[in-house]
Write a structure and sequence with these properties.
Elements lengths: L2 H8 L1 H12 L13 E3 L6 E3 L3 E2 L10 H16 L4 E3 L7 H11 L7 E6 L4 H14 L5 E6 L5 H14 L2 E7 L6 H10 L4 E5 L11 H8 L2 E5 L6 H6 L16 H11 L1
Parallel strand pairs: 3-4, 4-5, 5-6, 6-7, 7-8, 8-9
Antiparallel strand pairs: 1-2
Length: about 260
């Protein structure tokens, strides 16, 4: 793949931003960490741009054989400057595993824990969030999100109350399907939010025309999921060599390329 081919495939603007931003990558990193950071618009707090998702991978049993590799993953993630860990009650035992490992290795306070509520009714939402606090072994959750906009008005009202009480630091909403973007846009326009979580990658760009500009306009941080298209992007590039010019922005794998494309945009 040549630069010219990449520019044609990505669109001139995206390719230009990719190369410009990533060539200056080193200048934007935190002095204490090799990882690039970005600010949360509502507060200015800096967060590392690469987070750790827990769907499926952290849904394991209690045995040491199952949890030790995940402890190594989390410890390495923190050592390399990572902080954001995103989970959900819908991810089986993931919240419990994250809470147990983070407490065991004494790193709970270094993490920015994000989770979700996905149920209907105020009482059910309250019970779900209380369980999340218990499973994550914390008295305050950094980011609580209404998952897939389920009973969004009810839960956001509760979350605003919890935020005022100091039990939540930030609140947001999520969705993962393209046909929900219109509803997501309405919520972004009508509610005061800190975060929105959406699918976004070089292979899933539906959020690009309206959701990303709206988030910027409204001062809402964007948390990206499915950065590799659920693995589909790897299957599409596995047999293809990484372009030589990718080394110009410190890129030696397709995983790095795909993540840096998201960060540049």
């Amino acid at each position: 793949m040549s630069r010219r081919t990449a520019t044609r495939l990505l669109g001139f603007g995206a390719a230009a931003v990719l190369l410009r931003n990533l060539q200056s990558y080193g200048a934007e990193t935190d002095a204490k960490s090799p990882m690039l950071t970005r600010s949360i618009p509502s507060t200015g707090e800096q967060l590392p741009v690469i987070g750790l998702g827990t769907w499926q991978t952290f849904d394991v049993g209690p045995s040491a054989t199952e949890r030790k590799p995940l402890q190594e993953v989390l410890a390495t993630f923190i050592q390399l400057g990572g902080r954001v860990v995103d989970s959900s009650p819908m991810y089986g035992r993931a919240e419990e595993v994250v809470g147990e490992i983070a407490t065991r290795i004494g790193q709970r306070e270094r993490l920015f824990l994000a989770t979700k509520v996905w149920t209907s009714g105020k009482q059910a939402g309250l019970e779900s969030m209380e369980r999340s606090l218990s499973r994550l072994q914390t008295k305050r959750i950094d980011l609580m999100q209404v998952h897939n906009l389920v009973d969004v008005a009810t839960h956001l009202a509760t979350m605003h109350e919890w935020k005022a009480e100091g039990r939540l630091r930030y609140i947001g909403v999520t969705h993962y399907t393209e046909n929900a973007l219109e509803a997501l846009e309405r919520v972004l326009r009508s509610e005061k939010l800190d975060f929105v979580q959406i699918n976004y990658s070089i292979g899933e760009r539906a959020a690009e025309p309206r959701i990303l500009p709206l988030a910027q306009e409204r001062g809402v941080a964007v948390l990206v999921n499915r950065p590799f298209g659920g693995g589909d992007l790897f299957s599409r590039v596995r047999s293809k060599p990484l372009p030589g010019w990718a080394a110009e922005f410190d890129c030696s794998s397709w995983a790095q390329f795909l993540l840096k494309w998201i960060i540049a945009n």
